[in-house]
Amino acid sequence: MAYQHTAHVRVRYAETDQMGVVYHANYLVWMEVARTGLCTEMGFRYKDMEKDKVLLAVTEATCRYLSAAKYDDEITVTATMTEANRRFCAFDYEITCDGRKIATGQTRHIFLSPELRPVRLPDKYAPMFGLS
Amino acid sequence: MAYQHTAHVRVRYAETDQMGVVYHANYLVWMEVARTGLCTEMGFRYKDMEKDKVLLAVTEATCRYLSAAKYDDEITVTATMTEANRRFCAFDYEITCDGRKIATGQTRHIFLSPELRPVRLPDKYAPMFGLS
Amino acid sequence: MAYQHTAHVRVRYAETDQMGVVYHANYLVWMEVARTGLCTEMGFRYKDMEKDKVLLAVTEATCRYLSAAKYDDEITVTATMTEANRRFCAFDYEITCDGRKIATGQTRHIFLSPELRPVRLPDKYAPMFGLS
Amino acid sequence: MAYQHTAHVRVRYAETDQMGVVYHANYLVWMEVARTGLCTEMGFRYKDMEKDKVLLAVTEATCRYLSAAKYDDEITVTATMTEANRRFCAFDYEITCDGRKIATGQTRHIFLSPELRPVRLPDKYAPMFGLS
């Protein structure tokens, strides 16, 4: 079981802005793409966890932009789980383009019910988050 | 009861692309903004119709682009209901900037249940769509 | 030289809306992803054509939605060039999910200068569009 | 001259996700809307500063999410300039809905040339940032 996953995205024209680079909010979407892949690697499809009535809601997101990403660039996003308990988890991200680091980020999450109330991570999922 | 509504949006930086103009898919979002306002003018909040388990799903969308919209432009979007029955409705859109027509569009919709099955528009809403 | 290209996208959480399906405007973004891939298959990178001061601006876009796409679905988008001359070109799209057709679309485009004035497609690119 | 501006946005359907709330990356777009308004209040249109070849590029963005925003909610976003010198500036954001604080955020920026190289803020703009 791995707590790290690397996703690949190619920059879409829709993701650029008139500065000629990727609009900064889109990096958070790429982090989500890597996080979805990481869930799969941790042993579950995130969409199935939602069907089990456990949502992974973002409580904090940060991104530091070191260098611009441009249209049609091949981007790699590595997501790493850095913390987890039955209420909460956190991830780090490293975003690179052609081997050069262009951004780093973090997200923090809580588990919520579909009614958006905090819930404990069910036993079924605990081992996948490295919890007993 | 009006079947026409004009909404105003100011172009966001996020909506531009590296061509220096608004990315074309965002016009469909502006149409949705005007459609939401039109629902209010027709006598209901669209979010309440969803709570009543009736969704207005898009089955077709078209946009013709006549002239570019740019960052910080003041855009007006006029939505007009052009057809409606208990299963289906359709809207026309005219998008202008500084009095100049920059795009026209159409959307067609069906009424769906939250399970995404076709439903008849409930009696409660029929008069608001001009139906008896 | 092919005038058809099939791209693969996995539905992002960001692309869904509260109906639980992909927000309709995002299909136009997927068409753009397939169109970018088609340009590569036609013999050029679209970003290089922009560096050569030729922009492919959308003048019309249509999408017909047959069935919903959902989060984490694997989507295929096939773009086919249907018309081209020195001023204009057009593409058809077929979007499928698990072998089932979920949408079809068309876009029409004109060639523009970076100042957004119509230009003739340069000789260099004509053969790639099947033009002499 | 004010270094604070409050913008109002109504949540668009496009901004929601299948959790039934606003997708978290869109808060960064709302911050940008408030920042654009703040520039105007500081005495310049940001689009004119770009014409003067000075871009305000994001180097860091953070958002803490306290409570969900939903479709059709009326959101207020207050942007406050917290730091500025000739190379750099920073903003704080408070996002509320019906008087309730739903998120806070920060962004940090550097001034760039259109070629994306760091530049000093020109004298013309210095007083507008409270600099002499």
Structure description:
Four copies of one chain form a homotetramer. By secondary structure, the first copy, chain A, is α+β, with helices and mostly antiparallel strands. The first copy, chain A, has a single domain, classed as Roll (Thiol Ester Dehydrase, Chain A), CATH 3.10.129. Helices cover 17% and strands 39% of the residues of chain A. In chain A, strands 1-3-4-5-2 form a five-stranded antiparallel beta sheet, covered by helices on one side. The longest helix of chain A is centred in the N-terminal third of the chain and has 17 residues, at 26-42. Chain A is elongated, with a radius of gyration of 15 Å. The two termini of chain A are 14 Å apart. Chains in contact: A-B, A-C, A-D, B-C, B-D, C-D. The A-D interface holds A 18-21, 24-26, 28-29, 32, 50, 55, 57-65, 68, 114, 116 and D 18-21, 24-26, 28-29, 32, 50, 55, 57-65, 68, 114, 116. Strand 2 (55-65) of chain B pairs antiparallel with strand 2 (55-65) of chain C, so a sheet runs across the interface.
Give short descriptive properties of this protein.
homotetramer; 132 residues; alpha+beta; Thiol Ester Dehydrase, Chain A; five-stranded antiparallel beta sheet
**Intertermini distance of chain A:** 14 Å
CATH homologous superfamily identity of chain A: Hotdog Thioesterase
Mean pLDDT level of chain A? 97
**Which strands sit side by side, in order, in the main sheet of chain A?**
1-3-4-5-2
Global morphology of chain A: elongated
Query: What series of H and E elements makes up the topology of chain A?
Result: EHHEEEE
CATH class of chain A: Alpha Beta
Radius of gyration of chain A: 15 Å
Oligomer state equals: homotetramer
Instruction: List the uncertain runs of chain A.
Output: none
Largest sheet of chain A: 5 strands, antiparallel
CATH architectural designation of chain A? Roll
How many domain regions of chain A? 1
What is the fold named in CATH at topology level of chain A?
A: Thiol Ester Dehydrase, Chain A
Number of helices of chain A: 2
